[in-house]
Each structure stands twice: as structure tokens, then as C-alpha cells.
Amino acid sequence: MTARRAPGSSRKVVDHRTRVGRERRARTQSRIVAAALQVYAEQGPDAPVIEDFIRAAGVARGTFYNYFKSTSALFEATAKWLEEDMIVSIETEIGRTKDPIERLTNGVRLWLLRASSDPAWCSFVVRNRRRSALVEQTLAGDLRGGRRKGVFSYPSIDVARDMTVGTVLEAMRRMMHGRVPSTYIDDVTRIVLQGLGLSNAAIDAMLSRPLPALQRPVQRVP
Amino acid sequence: MTARRAPGSSRKVVDHRTRVGRERRARTQSRIVAAALQVYAEQGPDAPVIEDFIRAAGVARGTFYNYFKSTSALFEATAKWLEEDMIVSIETEIGRTKDPIERLTNGVRLWLLRASSDPAWCSFVVRNRRRSALVEQTLAGDLRGGRRKGVFSYPSIDVARDMTVGTVLEAMRRMMHGRVPSTYIDDVTRIVLQGLGLSNAAIDAMLSRPLPALQRPVQRVP
């Protein structure tokens, strides 16, 4: 551990190279994921093999494996990308809302609305086992905020998260496999809010507020 | 549609043959599923190919396809078998309990207790996309019963079911991927009951009752 730090000037060069390298990596990764979306749209989630992704992205096999260990890692990255894109769209609308209860209410409604109108997106999210970090952080922030305000009441943040995520995922599974009544999305939101300890009157007040429409275009499965 | 019914005596022979045939089918199916459990235990849920199952069950390839269209159909049947076996064990304990709220409370607790103590069983159930008919019927009966008693309150039976099943599945996923605090199972049950409209006092009363232990031996993944 006697290696010296590089002096200022050459260190800047190294930093610059690192940054450029990182940006190039991110671009290549995005290109592979975008190509993968196309492949999944054509063949479904299980049929494609690694050659399909390599051909669509126009990268060498070795390059592909530099970014993704397996097709299931690629699937996970693609689903994560779609999930985070949706969170960004939701935040663009409700980001100005400070009330965590209203944020969570409209977040769940907009998420389920997207799921019901975009089955391809829905099926990506449902099949992916892990939620993206952005989903987890956003949700945890609102759950904690609602409890601080004395409105949410739950045994632990983990359990509140598991009830919210689990209910939404199960609702998405139902929407994938058949039609649901027009009240379904608000009914799911209602039972989640009840699970978080809201009274009926408070839930009615929340659900009577107009739901903002998503303005930012979302990433569609082609 | 002018075919005549067979007269009494020969009809009895046909009935007998049908019954014997059905029993033989059920036996063969059970044998394939039992062999499949062994294969999954050795190789995990994704690795086995159709030859592994055929060899383990000692049946011809054609016979296998008579019973299961694909390895994923076999996986589904195996998971369903494990799920229904668990419901039978739970019913053996709580079948005498008439109160639907107590039934649901202890059903959820026993289910999660099994999941935490038997990771192989847990992973089968979590990976299977559909719940078995026996799970659906038992749960729907208790949800309806609790509402008739004026204790449960929910927007629709579908939404109540999706919240309960979704929360339990998400809890099982968490238990599969790491340790949970000793209070976790009761905390999950608590938030489900809160979602179904129970007051804190009613939930405390429910969770303070002793949980019966499962006496009937459950089907273990070997």
C-alpha cells in the first residue's frame, strides 16, 4: 500500500477517462436494453436466445457478456429500465405534491392505470422478481412520511412495503389474465390505504381528488 | 344426437371401467409428480429437462406427454400438489373453528410459519403463478364469512383476495431472500387484518390467541 497518488494534473486526465469510459458503458448498455425490448416484443419473454440479442444490438458476443452475465440478467435490466422510466413519469406529475398520502394514492393509481392500458409493460414488471431501487426509495419515502404525519399506521416499514407492493403486483396479475370492473383500480388503492390504517372518510377524500394524467411520454415496449 | 343410452347392466360395466381408468390415471399422475419432486430437489426448479422426469418416474415419453404437456405444466402440478397438501394440514387443525376471522388469522400464520421453516416448499409456491382451487375456495369462504359477520369490510371480494394473497406472497419472497425479525409473521398477519378493516383492538385479540401446531405430517420436498 505504498503507491503514491498521481499528482493533480494527471489525476484529472484519469478522472476524465474514467468518466468518458463510464458514459460509453452506459450508452452501450442502453443500446443492448433497447434492442432487447424489440426482441422481447417480437418473440415474447422466454423464447429469445443470446444470439437474438447480440444480432439486434449489433455487438460482439464478448461485449454482450461484459454487460450481462445471462439472458435472465438482461431481462431483469430491461424490466428495471421500464419500471424506473415509469417512476420518472409519475414523479414528473406528482413531484410537486408534498403530502405523502396523496403521493402514494396517486402513485398507485397511475401505476395500475398504466398496467391496465399497457399489457406488455405490465407483464415485464410482474415477471421481474425484484423491484428497482427507485421504486423502493420512492415508496419508502411516502410510507415513512405518512407515518410521521400520524396518518399511516403499520407494524414496520418492511411489512407496509410488502403489503403495498404485494397487493399491486397481485392486481397486475389479475389484469393480465382477464378483464376487471371499471372500479377495480380505485378499489385496489382503497384496500391498500385501509391496510395502511386510513379511515373510510380519509380514503373517500383521497380518491375524490382528480388524478393527474401523465404528460411525459413513457418508454413503450415496441 | 340420436345415440341411445346403454341399458342398465352394461352401463354399470362402463361406469366401473371409467372409474378404474380414472383411478389409474390419478395414480400415474401422482407417481410422476412424486418423482418430479425428487428431481427438483436434486437439480433445482429450472435445470431439469423432460428426460430427467421420465427417467425418475419410470414412464415412457408418450405416457409423460399424456399427463403433462410440458415441464412447466409439471412444475405447476407439483406446486399445486404441495399447496393443497398444506391446506389439508391447516384444515385438519382449524377445521373445527367456525369463526371466519380466527380461521383466516391462523391460516395466514400457519402458512407463513411453514414458509419460514421450509424454504423448498416456499420457493415452489412463490414460483407458481396460479393459486390452487382449494386455496381460492378456502380463502373466499373466510373472506365472505367475515364480511357477513360485519367484521371484514372491503370494496369487493376480488380486491380482498388480491390484497391477502399478494401480501402473503410478497412476505414469502422476503423470507426466501433473507432473515426476518421474529415478529414478522404476526406483523404481516396484522397488516392483512387491518387491510380487511379490523380495528387494532380486534387484531390484538386475534393475535393473542394461541396458534395451533400442525399435527398432520405435511408433504416435504425430499
Q: What is the CATH H-level superfamily of the largest domain in chain A?
A: Tetracycline Repressor, domain 2
DSSP strand count of chain A: 0
Order of helices and strands of chain A: HHHHHHHHHH
Give the second-level CATH assignment, the architecture of the largest domain in chain A: Orthogonal Bundle
Contiguous uncertain segments of 5+ residues of chain A: none
Task: Bin the helical content of chain A.
Answer: over 70%
Largest interface: A-B, 33 and 34 residues
Major beta sheet of chain A, specifics? none
| SS-derived structural category of chain A | mainly alpha
* Ends apart, CA distance between termini of chain A: 51 Å
What does this protein structure show overall?
Two copies of one chain form a homodimer. Chain A has 222 residues and is mainly alpha-helical. Chain A folds into two domains: 62 residues, Arc Repressor Mutant, subunit A; 148 residues, Orthogonal Bundle (Tetracycline Repressor, domain 2). Helix content of chain A is 72%, strand content 0%. Chain A is built from ten helices and no strands. In chain A, helix 5 packs parallel to helix 8. The mean pLDDT of chain A is 90. Chains A and B meet through helix 8 and helix 9 of A and helix 8 and helix 9 of B.
What would a concise description of this structure say?
Chain A is mostly helical and 222 residues long. Chain A contains ten helices and no strands.
